[in-house]
Design a protein that fits this description.
This protein is of the alpha+beta class and 612 residues long. The chain is 25% helix and 32% strand. The radius of gyration is 28 Å and the shape is globular. The chain binds guanosine-5'-triphosphate and magnesium ion.
Length: 612
């Protein structure tokens, strides 16, 4: 396609503001997907995306659209439109930032029933930083709860633009969607190229990839200059790895082979590379002996939380290593590194962009690779200075040193933006205070009629991860939204809390807590375990210990008389005999110091959710 007839754009918004549903209608009216094959949020193709109703991975798709009449610069005729749908949840914002480097324009969608939310601001800033044309659009205008005028006023104030440049659409009814397509063609410029389109001067940005067993790594690229065809010898410039272009093609949204991809287009190239760690997002693909300089890549996001993942049985270590390698080829935001721990054996320390990200990855490991896992309590990282002068970043709570070994500790802080209706400011301020946050300043937001405020808060990341999101949601009846970014390290007063079951530390349950909250945290953890841990064959003590002292303790009664459950009525002597055998067994177990405590998988999963 001639480059002046290509338009590349993404849809960005706060979570649930209707991006994927709008994409459905765009795909439908451009005839990209037949109506009878349509399903809701068709681009959310991963099983977990469909189950949870959220987008996790960005998804590119190509559409064709016929512009009937010339409008301004845009001539009538057929256009190739490459859309990238992005996730709205903050844990997946790395997906958004990568997608934005592959396009020239962005639809900023704002839900007419919700108004501007925290992630609206974050994604808007990302689009601005990438120099994109922004098309503001109010979504869900069909809803009886829509406040179209209020929300247009908010957007107009936010972007400093007249209200009549803001469009309105419904992804439910399709209203306003054809007009939106025409506005995209008019307002978004055709792709820029630095060099004349010339087959010898390929330069393509890798913005994503996928992996399959028989084809290896498939890279998702935006061709910036030149063109590529099957059989070309290519080079990953940063990795320095050569490969031959296998099949290449476009997203329809399934992969569909084409002969070439040329400047301005978005598509995929099969590389045949099977080992993980070679292809990386942000790398530039050029021809083998290209003199062109590589494109600026992506900043690697720094992990927000770390957790160690161990195979339940050490026999599966190899499988887990393979699975993590594969997953890192479809999710470039998580990191992993091998480690070993005395009690858990060998496993991997992994970094995630948030709790939902962690949950999704562990769930994918279980489902897609059929692995039974032990996941330690998620933790942020601490910079520890020891008495012996050593400095170390500690990722894993069980490895956090005893108080006596420490001179000082530093921890990461974050700056948050919370947008809330004014009536919740009081209770929110309380929650912020309880989480050691300092409200920096407040801006009233939107027209006086909507009465909302944006609060800027500095807070330790540790406190953000201590159930802050749920508490904010609950005191604001779900109306407040949060976004955040890491700012830097500050001194911390923290200590390691261990949980003991039957007198033995269970490393997966250890966590690092604020010293002045150690008691409360110990109480909570012990109480929670007490309610979810199944009774054992013997009396089991559950204790919380920090700084060498037991802070909390509960005793779980023994499981009773199960051995006779199948003997109904009758023969009491037979029952007595079984009870005696059971008693003997228990005694033996207690003599060994600790019985064989049975901690089922779901107890780990429930305990994993920090601070709940
Ligand atoms: N009434 C109405 N509801 C809508 C409309 N568009 C989306 N919804 C509903 O809003 C919810 C979220 O829609 P999605 O399209 O998944 O939102 P999203 O922005 O893609 O969400 P994430 O990708 O997870 O950030 C769903 O329950 C949709 O049915 C609309 O135009 N009108
Ligand atoms: Mg979506």
């Amino acid at each position: 396609m001639e480059i002046s007839r290509i338009r590349n754009f993404s849809i960005i918004a706060h979570i649930d503001h209707g991006k994927s549903t709008l994409a459905d209608r765009l795909l439908e009216i451009t005839g990209t997907i037949e109506k009878r094959k349509m399903q809701e949020q068709v681009l959310d193709s991963m099983e977990l995306e469909r189950e949870r109703g959220i987008t996790i991975k960005m998804q590119p798709v190509r559409m064709k659209y016929m512009l009937k009449e010339s409008a301004g610069q845009a001539k009538a005729g057929e256009y190739e439109m490459n859309l990238i749908d992005t996730p709205g949840h903050i844990d997946f914002s790395y997906e958004v930032s990568r997608a934005l480097k592959a396009v020239e324009g962005s639809i900023l969608l704002v839900d007419a029933t919700q108004g501007v939310q925290a992630q609206t601001l974050t994604t808007l800033n990302m689009a601005r930083d990438s120099g994109l044309v922004i098309i503001p659009v109010v979504s869900k205008i069909d809803s009886p709860l829509a406040r179209i005028d209020d929300v247009k006023a908010e957007i107009s104030q936010l972007l400093n633009i007249p209200e009549d440049t803001i469009l309105g659409v419904s992804g439910k009814t399709g209203e306003g969607v054809p007009e939106l397509l025409e506005e995209i063609i008019k307002r978004v410029p055709p792709p820029r190229t630095e060099i004349e389109a010339n087959a010898k001067d390929l330069r393509a940005l890798v913005f994503d990839f996928s992996y399959s067993n028989h084809r290896g790594v498939t890279v998702y690229v935006r061709v910036m200059d030149g063109s590529v065809k099957k059989g070309d010898t290519l080079l990953f410039r940063v990795a320095g790895q050569k490969f031959i272009a296998g099949e290449l093609g476009i997203f329809s949204p399934q992969e569909m082979p084409t002969d070439t991809l040329s400047a301005g287009e978005i598509g995929y190239i099969v590389t045949g590379i099977k080992e993980p760690g070679v292809a990386s997002v942000g790398d530039t693909i050029t021809t083998e002996r290209s003199a062109l300089h590589p494109l600026p890549g992506y900043m690697r996001p720094s992990p927000m939380v770390c957790a160690s993942i161990y195979p339940e049985s050490q026999d599966n270590l190899m499988l887990l290593r393979q699975a993590l390698g594969r997953l890192s080829l479809s999710d470039s935001a998580f990191t992993y590194e091998e480690e070993s721990s005395g009690t858990l054996g060998r496993g991997f320390r992994c970094g995630f962009l948030g709790m939902l990200h962690l949950e999704i990855i562990t769930e994918r490991l279980r489902r897609e690779f059929n692995l039974e896992l032990v996941v330690t309590t998620p933790s942020i990282t601490y910079a520890v200075t020891y008495r012996n002068g050593k400095k170390e970043i500690v990722y894993s709570p069980p490895l956090f040193p005893d108080d006596g070994e420490i001179v000082s500790v530093e921890e990461p802080w974050v700056r948050l933006k919370i947008i809330t209706p004014n009536e919740y400011i009081g209770p929110l301020t309380q929650v912020i205070f309880e989480h050691e946050g300092n409200a920096d300043h407040m801006d009233t937001f939107g027209e006086s009629s909507s009465n909302r405020t944006a609060i800027t808060v500095d807070m330790p990341l540790r406190e953000l991860m201590r159930n802050f999101f749920d508490e904010v949601k609950s005191v604001s009846s779900g109306y407040a939204s949060i976004s955040y970014a890491q700012t830097g390290m500050k001194p911390a007063d923290v200590t390691r809390l261990d949980i003991l079951i039957a007198e033995e530390v269970v490393p997966a349950f250890s966590r690092v807590v604020a010293r002045n909250k150690a008691y409360d945290e110990a109480e909570q953890a012990v109480e929670k375990l007490y309610t979810i841990l199944p009774k054992q064959l013997f009396v089991t003590k559950i204790q919380g210990r920090a700084g060498g002292r037991i802070l909390s303790s509960r005793t779980l009664a023994a499981l009773k008389k199960t051995v006779t459950a199948h003997l109904s009525g009758g023969d009491i002597s037979r029952k007595k005999k079984l009870w005696n055998i059971q008693k003997e067994g228990k005694k033996r177990m207690m003599e060994r110091g600790r019985g064989n405590v049975n901690i089922p998988q779901d107890v780990f999963v429930k305990m994993m959710r920090m601070g709940e």
